[in-house]
Design goal:
alpha/beta; 139 residues; 5 strands; 45% helix; single chain
Length: 139
């Protein structure tokens, strides 16, 4: 589902990063990077998934797993920590290494799967739109 979100973002002319939040086997929030589409400074995939999950009790987040196609940046990692997510599954960290060490140091289980589809989505995007990618990651 996170990969579907990333592909949707790319089809909309945005950055192909998707995320879903799963609670007890059910997706409760899903999203994709919408910085380009909405002219937003903060709508990364994980942030969009949190926004779309809506206001939930703290225990719901603590019992949830966040899936993301790309290693989470400092902003998204902060939200993961703020909401007490205990486990994340990362599609890949070859094209961008986020704050995995910070998350692990704070007790978050980080499982990186190096999914081929996730890697190719980002490699293709970075090669075709480096200026947009550099804008998104703040370089």
């Amino acid at each position: 589902a996170a990969i579907e979100e990333a592909q949707l973002g790319l089809a909309e002319g945005g950055i192909p990063i998707g995320s879903v939040i799963v609670h007890k086997g059910q997706i409760i929030g899903r999203g994709h990077n919408r910085r380009v589409q909405e002219g937003s400074a903060i709508k990364h995939g994980e942030m969009d998934a949190f926004e779309n999950a809506g206001r939930l009790p703290a225990r719901t987040y603590k019992e949830s797993v966040l899936y993301t196609t790309l290693s989470p940046c400092a902003m998204c990692s902060g939200a993961i920590l703020l909401y007490g997510i205990q486990k994340i599954v990362v599609g890949e960290n070859q094209t961008f290494m986020g704050e995995e060490a910070l998350l692990r140091s704070r007790g978050v289980e980080v499982d990186v799967v190096q999914d081929h589809t996730c890697i190719e989505l980002m490699r293709g995007f970075i090669a075709s739109k480096p200026e947009l990618w550099n804008e998104d990651i703040g370089e």
